[in-house]
Every structure is written in C-alpha cells, then in structure tokens.
Write a structure and sequence with these properties.
The chain is mainly α. It is 67% helix and 0% strand. Helix 6 crosses helix 7 (96-104) and helix 9 (133-149) crosses helix 11.
C-alpha cells in the first residue's frame, strides 16, 4: 500500500483509498446517522455566518465551487457547519475550508466530513484550535530542521527575520492544498494519509531546500 501511495493512487480509487487510509470509513460506520443529525441542526449563528462568507473563496475556478449556492458550496457549508457542531469547543477555522473542499472533490459530503474529523483529530491535532499552539510548536521544529538540512535557506530566512509562522500556516494548516501545483497536492495527500503528519514538514523541507539550490 505504501509503495502504491508513493507512486500515486489512481484517480478512480483515490477517494475510497483516502477514506480507508485515514480511518474515516471506520469512523463513519461507528457513527451511522451522526452526520445526518448534525446536518439537520441549525448550527451556531456565529460560525454559520463566518463559514458562509468563506465559501466563495475556496477554489473559485473549480467547476464544483464556481457557482454561489451551487452543490459544491452547499456541501462545503454542510461539512464545515457539521464540524462546528461535532466539536463546538473548537468551532471553525478558515484553514479547514480548503481541506474540506479537496475532500469533497473526491467523495460525498458524509465521507468528506469523517475524513475531515480524522485530519483534525488524528493527523493535525491542535492545528485548528483558537491559539494555534500546535502549529507554533511545529514552526519551531521546522526552523530547527531547516538549520540542519537546508542551512542556506535557514540563514536567508533568519537574515530576513522571517518567522516560520508567517509562511507555514498556509502550508501546514491547509496541507499544501493552496500552495503546490494540483498534481503535487494530490501526491502529497496520498502520502499524508498513508504515513501521517510527518509528511507535512518533509514537503516543506524539500520546498525550501530546492528553492535555495544553486542555479534554481
């Protein structure tokens, strides 16, 4: 399975594979009917308003999300609103929207919801909390890794006083969904679901290391 993910999951199987790899399929089966209950609930007006304002910003040129009120935006709203009800202490974070949108490109809303739950709870725990403690900690870890494995990039960023949190929030919290070419996003996500969150800093290291190679 790992070798297949390294080569790239075939597009026709990617949605199903992500569900099994993430544990979203098991989560759905253990919580049969739960998404429907959350979907039918009105939701907290505070989060509903913020989510509605973010819908049109997610992949605005993709056929699923191009139309205001279209099925893509409707499903995205359903998934994000359901999550605020599922984890009211966490609520909604804007970085969850592009992640949920990528999931919806590959699977129906209910399956996408449980995969999102797995990403938030299993793969990137604490990333979407109000104070972003986990992402700040991982930022310091990334900077240390840069110093060791990509010293040229580390020296340049230190000289420019660019704190990791300034650039890595978009990368890490959105799982590179709005940063890399689309074909690369899908390959990164294949390995992300296969091997876990360790793949996120690896991609960041490769990006910075490659950017500062001589002649690039």
């Amino acid at each position: 399975i790992r070798l297949r993910c390294q080569k790239g999951i075939p597009p026709s199987l990617r949605g199903r594979a992500w569900q099994y790899l993430s544990g979203g399929k098991v989560k759905l089966e253990q919580n049969a009917g739960r998404f429907d209950e959350l979907d039918l609930s009105p939701g907290d007006p505070k989060w509903v308003d913020v989510i509605e304002r973010d819908l049109h910003r997610q992949f605005p040129f993709h056929e699923m999300f191009v139309s205001r009120g279209g099925h893509g935006q409707q499903d995205l709203f359903r998934v994000l609103k359901a999550y605020t009800l599922y984890r009211p202490e966490e609520g909604y974070c804007q970085a969850q929207a592009p992640v949920a949108a990528v999931l919806l490109m590959h699977m129906p809303a209910e399956q996408a919801f449980w995969c999102l739950v797995q990403i938030c709870e299993k793969y990137l725990p604490g990333y979407y909390s109000e104070k972003l403690e986990a992402i700040q900690l991982d930022g310091e870890i990334l900077f240390s890794l840069l110093q060791r494995f990509a010293p040229v990039a580390y020296k340049h960023l230190s000289k420019q006083k660019l704190d990791p949190i300034l650039y890595m929030t978009e990368w890490f919290m959105c799982a590179f969904s709005r940063t890399l070419p689309w074909s690369s996003v899908l390959r990164v996500w294949d390995m992300f679901f296969c091997e876990g969150s360790a793949w996120v800093p690896r991609v960041a290291l490769c990006s910075w290391g490659g950017a500062f190679q001589p002649g690039t």
